[in-house]
Amino acid sequence: MDERMLDGEIKKSLLKATDDWLPLKKEIWNNIQDKVEYIDRTRAAVKKKKSRRKHVFSSIALTAAALIIVLVTSTNAGKAAVARIKDLLLPEKNIVQDIEGQKEDTRVNLKEGSGYVIYIDENNYQMIKQDGKDKIIPKNNLDSSFPEVYLAIQHVKDKTLLDMVPLIEEELKASFEYVDNYGTVEKPVKSISLYARSELEPRAPIVTYYLVDDNQGGSYVIEQRLFLEAAEGHGARFYHMLKEFKVINPQE
Amino acid sequence: MEKETIFRIKEGDKEAFEQLYNEYIEYALRTAIAITRNKPDALDAVQETFIRVYRNIIFYDEERPFKPWFFRILVNECHRIMKKKSKVIFIDKYLANSSMYSKEDSYSFEEYEDLYDAIQGLKDINRIPIILKYLDGFTEKEIAEILDININTLKSRLYKGRERLKEALLNIKERRIKNG
Q1: Contact B14, B22 (CB under 8 A)
Q2: Residues B171 and B102 in one domain
Q3: pTM
Q4: For chain A, domain boundaries
Q5: What dotted CATH number matches A89-247?
Q6: How is A114-162 classified by DSSP, letter by letter?
Q7: Which of A80, B5, B86, B107 has its CA 20 to 30 A from that of B67?
Q8: Among B29, B57, B84, which residue terminates a domain?
Q9: Sheet of strand A191-197, all strands in order from the earlier edge strand to the far edge
């Protein structure tokens, strides 16, 4: 059979079989508009909140900016920036966490990683380095019958969020029955978030990714791994730690 | 033109988003109908794709071509929905139930419908590259990027898929001649 003829036949059959697309056009647009308006409203609310915060903290920001300008001229700007910003922040502080419905006053300690800082609850967790990642793990290890619990932070300098999202999504789809891409989220940290789980059993592993822009063409890949039963305990504690995650950008 | 539209969407311009929608909806829907094999699932996949594009467009790198990025999201959405509903039907099971075989003696079926059945009877690894190549006109390099596979793997999958279709089309023609 003539090759070009075959190509033409395949194309024609695909076009004819999918010719009834038009009636769906209006329906989809109507559905999308509602969602788009919701996304816009959420973004506008966050912007407003940020601008209020910006006003209150303008003097702090000026001090920090002045420091950063000095730091950019140094040879190891990134590390120096983290160190200096770290100096501006309290080495430890108290936060109030909502753990399983109870308010809990918790002391958290400042920790630094590659281009970022985070406050962690050192009474219950420790930060270790493993496979090129910073891993926050519980101090009281659960026995091996429980799935792993950790918060891992990895700086991927050569891949943008756009590069990382499909890679992680595919990886999750290969291991979990249910995978969802939440898109851009503002809490606990501004990021693109992906979620994956399989069955809804108490000890079924649940993975949540937060992909944070490093503002330099790379990404921070934050992987939160726990199990359903631990969502309100470790899950809540990780959530509060992530609220304190800050990228320090020497180029700003 | 497209770059400017994307820039405007990033700035929050709704008209630009509608313009992009009008430009992409036809082939997004055709592709999703072909991949998911039904209109309700295609509707869900396309709808979710546009929402994801709107949500994540701030992270889109304008130096890269937009169309493969868009279709990568679309194909992933189709996969997600198909997996959720467990609608992946492999060739043997599909052929046993397809109209191509069960209605062998019917003259009312057009040739293109038989060929479409044959396309739908291919395994997904051959079927989806064929859809992207012939329906959307993507180059092999673009399809490899969309599906995140090596270009040589893609070439081999396209070749095998095409060979199966060539065989199917010859059978259809022979059958028609035989049946007058």
Answers
A1: no
A2: yes
A3: 0.54
A4: 3-54, 89-247
A5: 3.40.1000.10
A6: TTEEEEE-TTTEEEEEETTEEEEEESSPPPTTSPP-EEEEEEETT--HH
A7: B86
A8: B84
A9: A125-130, A133-138, A150-156, A219-227, A205-213, A191-197, A178-185
DSSP A222: E
Q: What is the ipTM of this complex?
A: 0.84
Pairing of β A178-185 and β A150-156: unpaired
pLDDT digits (tens, 9 = 90+) for A96-152: 777 666 777 788 888 888 889 999 988 889 999 887 789 999 987 666 677 889 999
CA distances from A113 to A117, A127, A148, A155, B171 (A): 6, 10, 22, 9, 64
Coil vs helix vs strand at A95: strand
A44 shares contact with chain B (CB less than 8 Å): no
Closest chain B C-alpha to A184 CA, distance in angstroms: 6
Structure tokens at A93: 């502080």
List the domain range (segments joined by +) for residue B144: 91-178
Kindly state whether residues B99 and B66 are assigned to the same domain: no
Contacts of B131 in chain A (CB under 8 A): 14
Residues of chain B numbered 12-51 and touching chain A (CB < 8 Å): 12, 14, 17-18, 21, 25-26, 29-31, 33-34, 39, 42-43, 46-47, 50-51
